[in-house]
Amino acid sequence: MKNLLHITFVLFIFATSCQVKKAESNLQPFFDLNEFLEKEINSMADLKSIKKKVSINGKIDEQILNDFDLEKDLEIFRNANINKVIWLDKYDVDSTLNNLGQLNHVKYTALDKKLKTREFIVNYNDGKVNSITIKNLTSNQVTLLNQHLQYFPSKGYSIESIQEVTMTDGQILKIEVEYLKGI
């Protein structure tokens, strides 16, 4: 009995003194758009101007802007970030490699029709992001909003929004932004 008590005490001390360390991983569930955009914004800190073309139902306005907030302008892209652990089973992932074994293309397709971001595509060239394409779709009984977003690193972006509201004409908004370097 004394031996059993002694063994139990030793096992108790051993069990309470051991710490289980969680395996940490830097792997992200999906492409981290927020991290990518943060690096992109920081790399263009010296950007002085942009050329912005806005079209609403075919009426076009084009300007060169020296006063702009790139972080705010790219918020629509940040809102489409799908890099969340809870969405691991909500997107189908398809990727291709080039003949050198480098990632060439990754396409995430929503499996759940309730998700706003329906498609998220990242194209690579020589191991670097070449373009990002996002298709968003939201709807309710009154409106349908279809968005097509494209981002081109160090070059610019485009946004096309088609909004249909019951019993009214639809509205098409297109925004094209070109980053002007050296101007």
Which secondary structure elements does this structure contain, and how are they paired or packed?
Blueprint: H1 2-17, H2 33-43, E1 49-56, E2 59-65, H3 70-73, H4 75-78, E3 91-97, E4 103-110, E5 117-125, E6 128-139, E7 143-152, E8 156-165, E9 171-180
What does this structure look like?
With 183 residues, this protein is of the alpha+beta class. The protein has one domain (29-180). The protein is 19% helix and 44% strand. It has helices at residues 2-17, 33-43, 70-73, 75-78; strands at residues 49-56, 59-65, 91-97, 103-110, 117-125, 128-139, 143-152, 156-165, 171-180. Strands 2-1-9-8-7-6-5-4-3 form a 9-stranded antiparallel beta sheet, with no helix packed on it.
Domain module tally? 1
Percentage of β-strand residues: 35-45%
Number of helices: 4
The average pLDDT is: 84
Query: Order of helices and strands, N to C?
Result: HHEEHHEEEEEEE
Using DSSP, what is the number of strands? Answer: 9
Low-confidence stretches: 1-27
Gyration radius (Cα, Å) is 24 Å
By secondary-structure content and strand pairing, the structural class works out as: alpha+beta
Cα shape = flat
Summarize the structure.
With 183 residues, the protein is an alpha+beta fold. The protein is built from four helices and nine strands, in the order H-H-E-E-H-H-E-E-E-E-E-E-E.
What are the salient characteristics of this protein?
single chain; 183 residues; alpha+beta; nine-stranded antiparallel β-sheet; 4 helices; 9 strands; 19% helix; 44% strand; flat; disordered N terminus
